Amino acid sequence: MSQVNRLSRGGRIDRSQPLTFTFNGETYQGYAGDTLAAALLANGVDVIGRSFKYSRPRGIVAAGAEEPNAVLQIGSREETQIPNVRATQQALYSGLVAASTNGWPSVNNDLMGILGKVGGKMMPPGFYYKTFMYPSSLWMTYEKYIRKAAGLGRAPLENDPDIYDHINQHCDVLVIGAGPAGLAAALAAGRSGARVILADEQEEFGGSLLDTRETLDGKPAAEWVAKVVAELKTLPEVTLLPRATVNGYHDHNFLTIHERRTDHLGETAPLGAFSAPQARHRVHRVRAGRVVLAAGAHERPLVYANNDVPGNMLAGAVSTYVRRYGVAPGKKLVLATNNDYAYRTALDWLDAGLQVVAVADARSNPRGSWVEEVRSRGVRVLTGSSVIDVRGGKRVEAARVAAIDPVAMKVTSPGEWLDCDLVASSGGYSPVVHLASHLGGRPEWREDILAFVPGEGNGLQKRIDAGAVNGVFKLGDVIANGFEAGVKAAAETGFKATAGDLPRTEKRVEEAAIALFQVPHEKPTARAPKQFVDLQNDVTAAGIELATREGFESVEHVKRYTALGFGTDQGKLGNINGLAIAARSMGISIPQMGTTMFRPNYTPVTFGAVAGRHCGHLFEPKRYTAMQAWHVANGAEFEDVGQWKRPWYFPKKGEDLHAAVARECLAVRNSVGILDASTLGKIDIQGPDAREFLNRVYTNAWTKLDVGKARYGLMCKEDGMVFDDGVTACLADNHFLMTTTTGGAARVLQWLELYHQTEWPELKVYFTSVTDHWATMTLSGPNSRKLLAEVTDIDLDKDGFPFMTWKEGNVAGVPARVFRISFTGELSYEVNVQADYALGVWEKLIEAGKKYDLTPYGTETMHVLRAEKGFIIVGQDTDASVTPDDLNMGWCVGRTKPFSWIGWRGMNREDCLREDRKQLVGLKPIDPLKVLPEGAQLVFDPKQSIPMTMVGHVTSSYMSATMGHSFAMAVVKGGLKRMGERVFAPLADGSVIEAEIVSSVFYDPKGERQNV
Amino acid sequence: MLHIFCPHCGELRSEEEFHAAGQAHIARPLDPNACTDEEWGDYLFFRDNPRGLHHELWLHAAGCRKYFNATRHTISYEILETYKIGEKPSVTEAGGSEKKPVAKGVTA
């Protein structure tokens, strides 16, 4: 079959460039310049898919973004699959592979269609809600099959091979739409020297001018388009973006444009300049001074019985296919209209040498110029009439035209069946108000044009409307309106536009339309054959009437009950008809009914475009310490701590996590281990009031901390709950180095800044993050002093350099600060050197440590060792509901500090003083081999009935190689007074772990090992 | 995406450089210990949620790292002014200065 519907001449296609493509496995041919929809119609493909709910055969209806049926799956390979592509907006390329998204086993022989036919009457709105509600546990099962049957495409299972870009743009004037109004606006604004972006969703600029039969300056309108585009290209401040849909109009005149840069070239982007990969889509993030909205209008179809049978199309779409693509989607046309403009379709059809069976005009006495021209060419024009019903299965076979009274909603003559294969209808034009509504602006109804236009809104959009979107439909007026908008936009952004010459248009009489949305039928709507309003979601006029009868009176409720406008097309075609039907059904006016809200995006956007470059290794920054290369070379397994990659453990051959951690723990306890602690947050604090500031943000006192000493501190929020901890050292009287948790570094710095900038600006103190400047390596274990002594000039004598002090000197030949602090309970030195020296220092320590069997250890061993000592990890053993007293760390609270420091008042609230608060304790499982799962809930009585009274949970839990048994930390209600009592952890598998409440300090409770 | 004028940098910058930090002008009581639990709870937990003008604290997080205030309309999202910490807003809700009674011990 070769392009049976292709006209022998005409159209903007390149007949010298045939392109082969497949649809549902069949191979077809089209031409360069075709859309996929045009090529399918050229090949006589009537059935494009099955409908959402009733599985009725559906064909192409429209030629643009409003297409509800031809929503296809594109892609020849798994990784290039794209769902929900509108065939009307997809340029044809060689090798394109398209498929219907529903219909099983095929769109032409669909099993669900039989169900739809049989069950149609039994599937009113709310059918799914009403039928599949019970038992609710089965909804998940139902849903899976319902979704599969409904079918709206599927996501690819493999990674997208293409790249996508985001780009920030700033312009004086953004012109949305390059039809007659938009081109004129861009020309006017561009000539003024303003920076202009002109964006249009179609393959080429021109909009309706690309297929209109109207002339400009006596020549085909497309010639004027070419002239204007040529001039725009010469203007250096003008950016032209075809294939670019302005999808969202956001706050403060920020708009997003989805530009499809290579979708017309193939399913993946070809290599670009210098053979480099190029972005397939680009999202422009535009901050615009002024926006000229020239988005045009969508034609509304009429709602008559069986208006969904393939072969029912929009009148304007028929003209587009004939004139722009040289495709006649049928042979014998019946046209139904309520306005003058649709008569152009009859003339275009006649010019193509095809038969117009009849025009049914709902108006009683139309006398416009185009009407008379159609009459003069011998076409039968039936006035006061409309198409009320259509016959046909997979293709229109006949249309019944009868006299109607649209006000009384009555059919006034028996009518007659007219043989035809195409019914084109036009119910008037709906301005594309979507973008104007994105910030909440309500469209306003204009009775004179029977349409909603963008409202003034709330004045949030610096926007000027032009052309059809503004309710201006006559071509000459549209261009003048656009030009005026461009001049105004330029002037409002500080540019002076010069007067321009407008092209001459034809003079003719145009008459107004009359209101007609749903066409009457002899039977009441509920009994008449289905009259579809929203084709994508199978919403019928009867369904909308039912919704209003069942009490869904708000337009938003009607929408949700019937699913009107819920599809990927957002009801571009059906919304206004639906509103009109709901309004009539309730006896109110359309403006009283109001519209639903439009949200970004205007058309579907691929996830690739949304993600841009923020995917793969660029999804999130990764932070490495200066010793990363050594860790990798020595086989470390890594753990994510915030954005940091930290060594988790260093397995030797054949070791698993547990074996490695046991070995690392014993090495630290018995000899010496080394940990990369560089990720700890470090904040350099300087200024005469630094000490006072520390007094206010830490729970404990800092007044008497001498130079050379270090102290552990807890930080609380105002509510008295612990939010960070760490050791701060006094470097000089006005100079401190604060350490924070790895994950809390940025948060703590911001917290300090908040209080300094907003509460205590009089304090002279400055904060600088130095986390990345200093690398930290911790030597821990009884042999750490001997090891360090070999590589440093610092005197490590235990009295001269005692616990909780620091010294400056050289380590491995590099200036270093060495802190005697310990997170393991062992004799420890934290060596800090400038990060760029760190790897060398680390390697020298490793070398010097060989004779002590120096063992590198990771975060897991660190966790076990600190837990054996009962040292908390903020965020693991605390959860923003834990006070220092809850942690049994009252020793760290300066109860007599003069200034009411952050947290003091909060932790003295009545609730914080309760004795039965959850308190941190140690747990010793009765079975020493059983390790409690972290997070396990605890109960006092495991025999109680479910739901049990939970009294706390396990916060940290490990097997201790040092002690030879499992142990845990947990918060337990009143736990500090329950030492020796039992708690139970009932687990999901039915087993119960019993444990004894003990002190959270398991190992070396007197701290003798760290203080030697 | 909001367009916010940083009063420290003197430039209009995009929202993604900023963090919102809640309601502005909530001074920490000078003597927290003199507050009742209820007063302290008010200071700590209760915030206005106006339909209309809202004075907010913002942080130019990916910029100068300074805090500042903004008067923003919560319906339109229009930002009517930004001003430094310590300054008073020049745009306020007409007649709507419904100041909460000052808690005991709160002298700020």
UniProtKB/TrEMBL annotation, chain A:
<keyword id="KW-0808">Transferase</keyword>
<feature type="domain" description="GCVT N-terminal">
    <location>
        <begin position="628"/>
        <end position="896"/>
    </location>
</feature>
<dbReference type="GO" id="GO:0008483">
    <property type="term" value="F:transaminase activity"/>
</dbReference>
<comment type="similarity">
    <text>Belongs to the GcvT family.</text>
</comment>
<dbReference type="InterPro" id="IPR006222">
    <property type="entry name" value="GCVT_N"/>
</dbReference>
<dbReference type="InterPro" id="IPR006277">
    <property type="entry name" value="Sarcosine_oxidase_asu"/>
</dbReference>
<dbReference type="InterPro" id="IPR023753">
    <property type="entry name" value="FAD/NAD-binding_dom"/>
</dbReference>
<dbReference type="InterPro" id="IPR027266">
    <property type="entry name" value="TrmE/GcvT-like"/>
</dbReference>
<dbReference type="InterPro" id="IPR029043">
    <property type="entry name" value="GcvT/YgfZ_C"/>
</dbReference>
<dbReference type="InterPro" id="IPR041117">
    <property type="entry name" value="SoxA_A3"/>
</dbReference>
<dbReference type="InterPro" id="IPR013977">
    <property type="entry name" value="GcvT_C"/>
</dbReference>
<dbReference type="Pfam" id="PF13510">
    <property type="entry name" value="Fer2_4"/>
</dbReference>
<feature type="domain" description="FAD/NAD(P)-binding">
    <location>
        <begin position="172"/>
        <end position="490"/>
    </location>
</feature>
<dbReference type="GO" id="GO:0008115">
    <property type="term" value="F:sarcosine oxidase activity"/>
</dbReference>
<dbReference type="Pfam" id="PF07992">
    <property type="entry name" value="Pyr_redox_2"/>
</dbReference>
<feature type="domain" description="Aminomethyltransferase C-terminal">
    <location>
        <begin position="918"/>
        <end position="1004"/>
    </location>
</feature>
<dbReference type="GO" id="GO:0046653">
    <property type="term" value="P:tetrahydrofolate metabolic process"/>
</dbReference>
<dbReference type="Pfam" id="PF17806">
    <property type="entry name" value="SO_alpha_A3"/>
</dbReference>
<keyword id="KW-0032">Aminotransferase</keyword>
<dbReference type="Pfam" id="PF08669">
    <property type="entry name" value="GCV_T_C"/>
</dbReference>
<dbReference type="InterPro" id="IPR036188">
    <property type="entry name" value="FAD/NAD-bd_sf"/>
</dbReference>
<keyword id="KW-0560">Oxidoreductase</keyword>
From TrEMBL, chain B:
<dbReference type="InterPro" id="IPR006279">
    <property type="entry name" value="SoxD"/>
</dbReference>
<dbReference type="InterPro" id="IPR038561">
    <property type="entry name" value="SoxD_sf"/>
</dbReference>
<dbReference type="Pfam" id="PF04267">
    <property type="entry name" value="SoxD"/>
</dbReference>
<dbReference type="GO" id="GO:0046653">
    <property type="term" value="P:tetrahydrofolate metabolic process"/>
</dbReference>
<dbReference type="GO" id="GO:0008115">
    <property type="term" value="F:sarcosine oxidase activity"/>
</dbReference>
<protein>
    <submittedName>
        <fullName>Sarcosine oxidase subunit delta</fullName>
    </submittedName>
</protein>
